[in-house]
Amino acid sequence: MTPHINAAKDDIAEIVLMPGDPLRAKYIAETYLTDAKQVSDVRNMLAFTGFYKGVRLSVMGHGMGIPSVSIYTHELIHEYDVKKLVRVGSCGGVAEDIDLRDIIVVNAASTGSATNRLRFGGYDYAAVPDFELLRTCWQTADSLKTPVRYGGIFTNDFFYGDPENLLPVLLKMNILALDMESAALFAIAAENRVQALSILTVSDHVVKGGEMSTLERQTSFNQMMELALETVIAD
Ligand SMILES: O=P(O)(O)O[C@H]1O[C@H](CO)[C@@H](O)[C@H]1O
Ligand SMILES: O=c1cc[nH]c(=O)[nH]1
Asked: What Enzyme Commission number(s) appear in the record (predicted)?
Protein backbone atom coordinates (compact mmCIF):
# COMPACT_ATOMS: atom_id res chain seq x y z
CA MET A 1 0.00 0.00 0.00
CA THR A 2 1.06 3.59 -0.60
CA PRO A 3 -0.12 6.94 0.80
CA HIS A 4 -2.54 7.24 -2.12
CA ILE A 5 -3.42 3.67 -3.14
CA ASN A 6 -4.79 1.09 -0.69
CA ALA A 7 -4.77 -1.93 -3.03
CA ALA A 8 -2.81 -5.00 -2.03
CA LYS A 9 0.29 -5.41 -4.19
CA ASP A 10 -1.15 -8.17 -6.37
CA ASP A 11 -4.46 -6.42 -6.80
CA ILE A 12 -3.15 -4.13 -9.54
CA ALA A 13 -2.39 -5.58 -12.98
CA GLU A 14 0.72 -4.81 -15.08
CA ILE A 15 -1.48 -2.88 -17.52
CA VAL A 16 -3.39 0.17 -16.24
CA LEU A 17 -5.80 2.35 -18.19
CA MET A 18 -6.01 5.81 -16.65
CA PRO A 19 -8.71 8.42 -17.17
CA GLY A 20 -8.47 11.63 -15.17
CA ASP A 21 -11.90 11.08 -13.68
CA PRO A 22 -12.33 8.17 -11.23
CA LEU A 23 -15.98 7.84 -12.24
CA ARG A 24 -14.81 7.22 -15.81
CA ALA A 25 -12.62 4.45 -14.38
CA LYS A 26 -15.71 2.96 -12.72
CA TYR A 27 -17.63 3.21 -15.98
CA ILE A 28 -14.86 1.44 -17.91
CA ALA A 29 -14.66 -1.34 -15.32
CA GLU A 30 -18.43 -1.84 -15.25
CA THR A 31 -18.82 -1.66 -19.03
CA TYR A 32 -15.83 -3.59 -20.33
CA LEU A 33 -14.24 -5.76 -17.64
CA THR A 34 -15.34 -9.16 -16.41
CA ASP A 35 -14.87 -10.15 -12.77
CA ALA A 36 -13.98 -6.53 -11.99
CA LYS A 37 -13.38 -5.67 -8.37
CA GLN A 38 -12.66 -2.32 -6.80
CA VAL A 39 -9.14 -2.42 -5.39
CA SER A 40 -8.46 1.12 -4.18
CA ASP A 41 -10.54 4.03 -2.93
CA VAL A 42 -8.16 6.45 -1.22
CA ARG A 43 -9.49 9.99 -1.81
CA ASN A 44 -12.14 8.34 -4.02
CA MET A 45 -9.50 7.92 -6.72
CA LEU A 46 -11.11 4.60 -7.59
CA ALA A 47 -9.16 1.68 -9.06
CA PHE A 48 -10.57 -1.56 -10.43
CA THR A 49 -9.01 -4.78 -11.66
CA GLY A 50 -10.65 -7.33 -13.92
CA PHE A 51 -10.29 -9.01 -17.29
CA TYR A 52 -10.77 -7.79 -20.84
CA LYS A 53 -11.03 -10.69 -23.30
CA GLY A 54 -9.11 -12.82 -20.81
CA VAL A 55 -6.30 -10.29 -20.21
CA ARG A 56 -5.95 -9.00 -16.65
CA LEU A 57 -5.86 -5.24 -16.42
CA SER A 58 -6.63 -2.38 -14.07
CA VAL A 59 -8.36 0.95 -14.52
CA MET A 60 -7.61 3.85 -12.20
CA GLY A 61 -8.27 7.59 -12.18
CA HIS A 62 -5.20 9.84 -12.13
CA GLY A 63 -6.87 13.15 -11.25
CA MET A 64 -6.20 16.48 -12.91
CA GLY A 65 -2.83 17.99 -13.70
CA ILE A 66 0.80 16.96 -13.62
CA PRO A 67 1.27 16.70 -9.83
CA SER A 68 -1.68 14.34 -9.52
CA VAL A 69 -0.80 12.06 -12.46
CA SER A 70 2.82 12.04 -11.28
CA ILE A 71 1.91 10.76 -7.82
CA TYR A 72 -0.31 7.95 -9.07
CA THR A 73 1.98 6.80 -11.88
CA HIS A 74 5.02 6.88 -9.58
CA GLU A 75 3.26 4.70 -7.02
CA LEU A 76 1.88 2.33 -9.66
CA ILE A 77 5.30 1.85 -11.23
CA HIS A 78 7.39 1.67 -8.06
CA GLU A 79 5.05 -0.11 -5.65
CA TYR A 80 2.83 -2.14 -7.97
CA ASP A 81 5.27 -3.00 -10.80
CA VAL A 82 3.00 -1.57 -13.48
CA LYS A 83 4.57 -1.82 -16.94
CA LYS A 84 2.03 -0.27 -19.29
CA LEU A 85 0.10 2.96 -18.66
CA VAL A 86 -2.50 4.23 -21.10
CA ARG A 87 -4.17 7.55 -20.45
CA VAL A 88 -7.72 7.66 -21.78
CA GLY A 89 -8.56 11.30 -21.34
CA SER A 90 -10.41 14.31 -22.59
CA CYS A 91 -8.78 17.29 -24.24
CA GLY A 92 -9.58 20.74 -25.55
CA GLY A 93 -9.36 21.03 -29.33
CA VAL A 94 -7.07 23.74 -30.68
CA ALA A 95 -6.41 23.12 -34.41
CA GLU A 96 -9.03 24.31 -36.88
CA ASP A 97 -9.49 20.85 -38.41
CA ILE A 98 -10.15 19.17 -35.04
CA ASP A 99 -13.77 18.73 -33.98
CA LEU A 100 -15.71 17.82 -30.83
CA ARG A 101 -15.59 14.03 -30.19
CA ASP A 102 -12.54 13.47 -32.43
CA ILE A 103 -10.10 10.91 -31.06
CA ILE A 104 -6.48 12.03 -30.88
CA VAL A 105 -3.61 9.59 -30.38
CA VAL A 106 -0.81 11.71 -29.00
CA ASN A 107 2.54 11.29 -30.73
CA ALA A 108 4.28 14.14 -28.87
CA ALA A 109 3.41 16.32 -25.90
CA SER A 110 4.94 19.75 -25.47
CA THR A 111 4.41 21.50 -22.16
CA GLY A 112 4.70 24.78 -20.30
CA SER A 113 5.25 22.89 -17.06
CA ALA A 114 8.74 23.09 -15.58
CA THR A 115 8.64 19.51 -14.33
CA ASN A 116 10.13 17.82 -17.39
CA ARG A 117 12.81 20.49 -17.73
CA LEU A 118 13.77 19.98 -14.09
CA ARG A 119 13.75 16.24 -14.60
CA PHE A 120 15.95 16.70 -17.69
CA GLY A 121 18.66 18.89 -16.15
CA GLY A 122 17.35 22.16 -17.57
CA TYR A 123 17.17 20.97 -21.19
CA ASP A 124 13.97 20.73 -23.25
CA TYR A 125 12.73 17.15 -23.12
CA ALA A 126 10.83 15.69 -26.10
CA ALA A 127 7.95 13.86 -24.41
CA VAL A 128 6.72 11.04 -26.63
CA PRO A 129 4.71 7.85 -26.12
CA ASP A 130 6.20 4.40 -26.32
CA PHE A 131 6.75 3.64 -30.00
CA GLU A 132 5.67 -0.04 -29.87
CA LEU A 133 2.46 0.87 -28.10
CA LEU A 134 1.85 3.70 -30.55
CA ARG A 135 2.42 1.36 -33.48
CA THR A 136 0.05 -1.22 -32.01
CA CYS A 137 -2.53 1.51 -31.50
CA TRP A 138 -2.16 2.61 -35.12
CA GLN A 139 -2.65 -0.99 -36.33
CA THR A 140 -5.59 -1.48 -33.96
CA ALA A 141 -7.33 1.73 -35.05
CA ASP A 142 -6.87 0.58 -38.63
CA SER A 143 -8.39 -2.84 -38.03
CA LEU A 144 -11.27 -1.43 -35.94
CA LYS A 145 -11.78 1.26 -38.60
CA THR A 146 -11.76 3.83 -35.84
CA PRO A 147 -11.07 7.30 -37.24
CA VAL A 148 -8.16 8.75 -35.30
CA ARG A 149 -5.91 11.81 -35.55
CA TYR A 150 -2.21 11.46 -34.71
CA GLY A 151 -0.34 14.56 -33.69
CA GLY A 152 1.22 16.80 -31.11
CA ILE A 153 -0.62 18.20 -28.13
CA PHE A 154 0.26 20.67 -25.38
CA THR A 155 0.13 19.64 -21.72
CA ASN A 156 -1.04 22.74 -19.92
CA ASP A 157 -0.77 23.78 -16.29
CA PHE A 158 -3.68 26.15 -16.84
CA PHE A 159 -7.30 25.23 -17.35
CA TYR A 160 -8.50 28.83 -16.87
CA GLY A 161 -6.61 31.99 -17.75
CA ASP A 162 -4.04 30.76 -20.25
CA PRO A 163 -1.16 33.17 -20.86
CA GLU A 164 -2.11 35.42 -23.79
CA ASN A 165 0.69 34.22 -26.04
CA LEU A 166 -0.17 30.53 -25.68
CA LEU A 167 -2.92 30.01 -28.25
CA PRO A 168 -1.11 31.81 -31.12
CA VAL A 169 1.99 29.63 -30.73
CA LEU A 170 -0.04 26.45 -30.42
CA LEU A 171 -1.83 27.29 -33.67
CA LYS A 172 1.45 28.26 -35.35
CA MET A 173 3.05 24.92 -34.44
CA ASN A 174 0.01 22.83 -35.46
CA ILE A 175 -0.74 21.61 -31.94
CA LEU A 176 -3.98 19.64 -32.14
CA ALA A 177 -5.24 19.93 -28.59
CA LEU A 178 -4.59 20.66 -24.90
CA ASP A 179 -4.55 18.30 -21.96
CA MET A 180 -3.01 18.55 -18.50
CA GLU A 181 -1.04 15.30 -18.01
CA SER A 182 0.40 13.55 -21.10
CA ALA A 183 3.84 15.21 -21.16
CA ALA A 184 4.54 14.16 -17.58
CA LEU A 185 3.15 10.68 -18.10
CA PHE A 186 5.53 10.13 -21.04
CA ALA A 187 8.55 11.45 -19.15
CA ILE A 188 7.84 9.38 -16.04
CA ALA A 189 7.37 6.27 -18.18
CA ALA A 190 10.64 6.86 -20.03
CA GLU A 191 12.53 7.49 -16.81
CA ASN A 192 11.26 4.20 -15.42
CA ARG A 193 11.50 2.13 -18.63
CA VAL A 194 7.80 1.38 -18.81
CA GLN A 195 5.42 1.95 -21.71
CA ALA A 196 2.99 4.85 -21.93
CA LEU A 197 0.43 6.04 -24.44
CA SER A 198 -2.19 8.76 -24.39
CA ILE A 199 -5.49 8.62 -26.26
CA LEU A 200 -7.76 11.63 -25.95
CA THR A 201 -11.28 12.58 -26.97
CA VAL A 202 -12.00 16.21 -27.76
CA SER A 203 -14.50 17.34 -25.11
CA ASP A 204 -14.51 21.02 -26.04
CA HIS A 205 -12.87 23.30 -28.58
CA VAL A 206 -10.99 26.26 -27.22
CA VAL A 207 -11.05 28.17 -30.54
CA LYS A 208 -14.27 27.11 -32.25
CA GLY A 209 -16.34 26.65 -29.06
CA GLY A 210 -18.74 23.82 -28.13
CA GLU A 211 -18.45 21.33 -25.28
CA MET A 212 -19.63 17.93 -24.10
CA SER A 213 -21.66 17.70 -20.88
CA THR A 214 -20.13 16.26 -17.70
CA LEU A 215 -22.23 13.11 -18.06
CA GLU A 216 -21.13 12.71 -21.69
CA ARG A 217 -17.49 13.03 -20.59
CA GLN A 218 -18.01 10.36 -17.95
CA THR A 219 -19.74 7.84 -20.14
CA SER A 220 -19.57 8.42 -23.88
CA PHE A 221 -15.94 7.92 -24.82
CA ASN A 222 -16.65 4.37 -25.91
CA GLN A 223 -14.71 4.32 -29.19
CA MET A 224 -11.64 5.62 -27.39
CA MET A 225 -12.00 3.03 -24.62
CA GLU A 226 -12.36 0.20 -27.11
CA LEU A 227 -9.31 1.41 -29.03
CA ALA A 228 -7.28 1.55 -25.80
CA LEU A 229 -8.46 -1.86 -24.59
CA GLU A 230 -7.85 -3.58 -27.93
CA THR A 231 -4.43 -1.91 -28.16
CA VAL A 232 -3.20 -3.09 -24.77
CA ILE A 233 -4.28 -6.66 -25.34
CA ALA A 234 -2.67 -6.73 -28.80
CA ASP A 235 0.64 -5.16 -27.71
O1 LIG B 1 -10.78 14.21 -18.69
P2 LIG B 1 -9.38 14.08 -18.16
O3 LIG B 1 -8.81 12.75 -18.46
O4 LIG B 1 -9.29 14.41 -16.69
O5 LIG B 1 -8.47 15.15 -18.96
C6 LIG B 1 -8.67 16.56 -19.06
O7 LIG B 1 -9.72 17.03 -18.25
C8 LIG B 1 -9.21 17.67 -17.06
C9 LIG B 1 -9.63 19.12 -17.09
O10 LIG B 1 -11.01 19.23 -17.12
C11 LIG B 1 -7.69 17.52 -17.12
O12 LIG B 1 -7.32 16.38 -16.37
C13 LIG B 1 -7.45 17.33 -18.60
O14 LIG B 1 -6.25 16.70 -18.95
O1 LIG C 1 -6.93 20.25 -20.50
C2 LIG C 1 -8.00 20.51 -21.06
C3 LIG C 1 -8.99 19.52 -21.26
C4 LIG C 1 -10.15 19.85 -21.88
N5 LIG C 1 -10.32 21.14 -22.28
C6 LIG C 1 -9.37 22.07 -22.10
O7 LIG C 1 -9.55 23.24 -22.49
N8 LIG C 1 -8.23 21.74 -21.49
From this structure: 2.4.2.1
